[in-house]
Amino acid sequence: MIGPSSRQHCMISWGILILLIVFMVLLVLFPWYKQLASYDESIESREQSIQRFQEKLRQRPALEAALSDPGYESKVRTFYLREGTDALAGAELQQRIKTAIEKTNGNLVSTQLLTSAGQQASVPKVTVKLRMRGDTSDLLNVVHELESSKPLLFVEDLSARGSKSNAGNRQEILDINLTLSGFMYKRQAEQ
User: Fold this and answer.
1) Does residue 1 belong to any structural domain of this protein?
2) Domain-ending residue, one of 68, 90, 116
3) Which of 54, 86, 174, 182 could form a disulfide with 160 if both were Cys (CB 3.0 to 4.6 A apart)?
4) What single string gives the DSSP state of each residue in 85-115?
């Protein structure tokens, strides 16, 4: 026998036809399966979101009770600057800065209250820019003192340039520029 018989041709043809059909089915079914898997992931993600929202809803009565507690406002108020106007809150913030720098033996060079024109935020922000001189430990202590006490204050910008104070002293004196912000308390009735 030199060539394949007609029976072998028929088997090869059927085999190729079956392979083409399987290939076409896989070509259609694989993307479809991937799309179904994507839908399953999306459904699972949505179910988790629904569970989180339901948990928040279950916590709502407890949160409302805490908010209606007469002592709640006084507890929250400690995180804000005491004064009610920008100028007075700025003066309070400048005094806190001066006290913190004196406590750490730094040297306060200047402070400047930065005003924000047309600020109508629900929680008004008061920002002070200051310049001081001191070493790295003074800087660390001032920043720690200001950020770790109440009311909450936030360092928004900090830059330091160093220079040797004199040839005999190996301590580096830093020229420090710092922008510090705090927030004024505004009750819901005032808004």
Assistant:
1) no
2) 68
3) 174
4) SHHHHHHHHHHHHHHHHHHTT-EEEEEEEEP
Whether the pTM exceeds 0.85: the reply is no
Pull the structure tokens for residue 103: 């406590």
DSSP readout, 139-189? Answer: HHHHHHHHHHSSS-EEEEEEEEEEEES-SS--PEEEEEEEEEEEEB---GG
List of residues 6+ apart from 181 with CB closer than 8 A: 125, 126, 127, 128, 153, 154, 156
With respect to residue 95, please indicate whether it lies within any of the assigned structural domains. Answer: yes
Checking DSSP bridges between strand 125-134 and strand 107-114, what pairing results, if any?
antiparallel
* pLDDT band, residue 116 (cuts 50/70/90): low
Q: Which residue, 68, 94, 120, sits at the end of a domain?
A: 68
56 and 87 together in one domain: no
Measured distance CA(175)–CA(171) in Å, rounded: 13
Whether residue 4 has a cis bond before it, omega within 30° of 0? no
Confidence category of residue 118, pLDDT binned at 50, 70, 90: low
With beta carbons less than 8 A apart as the criterion, state whether 126 and 152 touch: no
137-165 per-position pLDDT tens digit: 888 888 888 888 888 888 889 998 887 65
The owner of tokens 């710092």 is 178
Please give the helix or strand (H or E) that residue 12 lies within, else none: helix 6-68
